[in-house]
């Protein structure tokens, strides 16, 4: 029986999730998107080249619900020749609020989506990964620069994304003996469609942002997706337990502060 090497991507209907699907389709037989709302992704997938779109399927799934994830696992493993190769925990989201404004229910909801869901998903797929005959198996968790730096306005999200980094290291330590690697990709602000709309309505948003990015621009979705594809590939088999920022240099330091004291034309 031919082996069907599978990549599972949570939060698969967003711009980043779809970009990851596009990139992983080059090295996997089947891409399965898990999302609570698949409708908005269908047209995007149809616009992909046929050789990519034919590999992508979707399962409606609330990734904060362990029972729903268990059903998704059963569906995926029932595919003929199913062999799990890559799990990408990409689901996440936040709303701007100060710590003072954050309510207990809002805090729990953001922790659930941005941290608990990654644990639930890994827990659901762990046995399938352990038993998979794939020679290059990996878990890639999408964190954020917010999980590395302290920030204003996203207290629960930042806390969850920081926790996700350490959760990933735990996977790396405990599951490396099964040939499973676990790594983190931590994007900064990414040029998604939502950000494009914000910038069109308020061009100053980008001017205020870019001073914090040494490259002077936001990261593109394909730049995030290509790093995920690299970490999932045979080119990264020695990389395990790392957090790789894809942020244009945001987490490298504090350029606006340095410039305020600098007299060199290079600052």
Automatic annotation (TrEMBL):
Keywords in alphabetical order: NADP
Coiled-coil residues: none
GO biological process: monocarboxylic acid metabolic process
Ketoreductase domain ranges (all copies): 5-151
Methyltransferase as UniProt keyword: no
Matching InterPro entries: KR_dom, NAD(P)-bd_dom_sf, Sc_DH/Rdtase_CS, SDR, SDR_fam
E.C. code: 1.1.1.100
Superkingdom in the source lineage: Eukaryota
Annotated catalysed reactions: a (3R)-hydroxyacyl-[ACP] + NADP(+) = a 3-oxoacyl-[ACP] + NADPH + H(+)
SMART domains in UniProt: PKS_KR
Any one GO MF annotation of this record: 3-oxoacyl-[acyl-carrier-protein] reductase (NADPH) activity
PANTHER family for this protein: 3-OXOACYL-(ACYL-CARRIER-PROTEIN) REDUCTASE, 3-OXOACYL-[ACYL-CARRIER-PROTEIN] REDUCTASE FABG
Protein family according to the UniProt entry: Belongs to the short-chain dehydrogenases/reductases (SDR) family.
Name of the protein described by the UniProt record: 3-oxoacyl-[acyl-carrier-protein] reductase
């Amino acid at each position: 029986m031919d082996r069907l090497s599978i990549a599972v991507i949570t939060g698969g209907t967003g711009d980043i999730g779809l970009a990851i699907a596009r990139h992983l389709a080059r090295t996997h037989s089947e891409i399965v998107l898990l999302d609570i709302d698949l409708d908005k992704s269908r047209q995007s997938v149809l616009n992909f080249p046929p050789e990519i779109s034919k590999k992508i399927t979707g399962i409606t799934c609330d990734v904060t619900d362990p029972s729903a994830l268990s059903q998704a696992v059963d569906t995926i493993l029932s595919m003929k020749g199913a062999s799990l190769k890559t799990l990408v925990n990409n689901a996440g989201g936040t709303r701007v609020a100060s710590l003072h404004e954050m309510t207990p229910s809002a805090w729990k909801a953001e922790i659930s989506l941005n941290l608990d869901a990654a644990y639930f998903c890994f827990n659901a797929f762990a046995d399938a990964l352990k038993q998979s005959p794939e020679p290059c198996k990996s878990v890639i968790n999408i964190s954020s620069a917010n999980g590395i730096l302290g920030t204003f306005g996203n207290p629960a999200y930042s806390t969850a994304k920081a926790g996700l980094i350490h959760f990933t290291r735990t996977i790396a330590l405990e599951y490396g003996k099964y040939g499973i690697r676990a790594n983190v990709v931590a994007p900064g602000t990414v040029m998604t469609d939502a950000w494009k709309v914000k910038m069109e309505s308020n061009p100053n948003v980008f001017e205020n942002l870019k001073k914090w990015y040494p490259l002077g621009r936001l990261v593109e979705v394909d730049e995030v997706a290509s790093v995920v594809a690299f970490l999932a590939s045979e080119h990264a088999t020695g990389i395990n337990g790392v957090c790789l920022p894809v942020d244009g240099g945001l987490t490298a330091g504090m350029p606006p502060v340095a410039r305020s004291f600098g007299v060199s034309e290079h600052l």
